[in-house]
Amino acid sequence: MADFELQLVAQRIRSFPDFPVPGVLFRDISPVLKHPDSFRASISLLANHLKKAHGGRIDYIAGLDSRGFLFGPSLAQELGLGCILIRKRGKLPGPTVCASYALEYGKAELEIQRDALEPGQKVVVVDDLLATGGTMRAACELLGQLQAQVLECVSLVELTSLKGREKLGAVPFFSLLQYE
Prior knowledge:
Layout: H1 2-10, E1 14-17, E2 25-28, H2 30-34, H3 36-54, E3 60-64, H4 68-79, E4 82-88, E5 96-103, E6 106-113, E7 122-130, H5 134-145, E8 149-159, E9 173-179
Parallel strand pairs: 3-4, 3-7, 7-8, 8-9
Antiparallel strand pairs: 1-2, 4-6, 5-6
Helix pairs in contact: 1-3, 3-4
């Protein structure tokens, strides 16, 4: 069943050469969202991995702005958990904590509401894709500022040639599909 589900997801990933700039091969997850069987399979596969890896020890799923918001709530619901949001700076009301990370040209910042978690709560971070790892690492740093424990980071797609998982240090990482 898992192989069939993985094929449902893999067949829906499209590749666009030279987007957004020449030399980049963009992996598009939009068709996964368009086809309910593929989306359902992606959530099921991620949920089954997390159940096996962590059992009932997860307190929350943290979805990353913005495509992590597409998978985070559904994954959380599948696991019977709540979902918290990690957003680009300036998008959340109330007191927040912030972490910055490097982009190809410049920097960006993520934030989370200060009261999103209690110290010691266990969180899994989800996004659609892991490339250089900067966003996920910043998310882990934010959760650390709140004294949460990051159990793992997960994504649908991993671009292995960019070595993003190395930026996560000791935090375990899992992806459904890997591309060069």
